[in-house]
Model the fold of this input.
Amino acid sequence: MTAEPETRPLRRLRLAGRLLLLALVAAGAGLAWRERGALDAAAIARVLAHYPAAPLVFLALHTAASLIFFPRTVLAVAAGALFGAWWGTLWAALGSVLGAVAGFLLARAVNGGLIEPESLRRLGPMLLRAERGGWRAVAVLRLVPVIPHSLSNYALGLTRLDLGSYALGSLLGQLPMTFACADLGAAGETLAAGRAGWVAPTAVGLAALALSAALPRLLARKTAPPP
Done:
């Protein structure tokens, strides 16, 4: 049995739904940009501290923020300040994956086959490599600090990657930077409260930050073909 062709009203309804999703994302990004001065890590941590279910509120906030190009590093620092280094890393990492999956699925729903990676002159080859490489390629891509989190989510949503590989690669690739930021956030909270013991966490956070910045180059050298 063959599927019935899509009617014109249904096509229009689907198009209207896609445009509405894009408009909501654009409005959210514009609002976040306008209020960017008030959205620092300390302010986010203070607001979340008033909620009994702070981890769940944080995860919801992180997921929404990932859709509107809000830096995930700020949220990781806020998680460290609020929950401590280890719990902060856990919640920030989980929030990063949830946000990445949300952006990936949103891009896939809005695109609906309209744009094929092969048709993109500059971005296409990178997306096709990620598609062929699976979770490993996604992890390496996530390690590059200059690529915005939200942009990667939407771009990879144009590929035919399966969701499991995408989520696993995103988790592993984002983990070093997430740990570094959460650890620095926890150290900053300790220092701001006037308590001792902030030097070691700061050193660990800076070391993790340096490692996360160096990993892409190390992996590129390791995987480069011999001369």
In short: The mean pLDDT is 76.
